[in-house]
Design goal:
The protein is mostly helical. The chain has one domain. It starts with 14 loop residues before the first helix and ends with a helix.
């Protein structure tokens, strides 16, 4: 520990920020797992988000289990927010 370590600025992460980050990580992981298994990842994710049927998501790498950890509306919020931020 250096003399100035105790003076570093700490970053506060709210619960909402943590949920958004979790949704972001899960979407990226699910997308990767779907592509690796040869699926059209966008189509599969759309199928899951519209229907809520987890069988649209591969079990590979725990993707299906992970995607169910986050509410579908949170995944949609993250996707729409990302898209809109890129269009500005």
């Amino acid at each position: 520990m250096t003399p100035h370590d105790d003076q570093r600025t700490r970053i506060f992460t709210s619960e909402e920020d943590a949920q958004r980050e979790q949704a972001r990580r899960i979407l990226a992981g699910v997308y990767t797992a779907l592509v690796e298994q040869g699926y059209d990842a966008v189509e599969q994710l759309v199928g899951y988000l519209l229907s809520g049927d987890p069988t649209y998501i591969t079990e590979s790498g725990g993707a299906r289990q992970n995607v169910q950890r986050v509410e579908r509306n949170e995944l949609l919020q993250e996707l729409v927010g990302f898209y809109v931020s890129k269009e500005k």
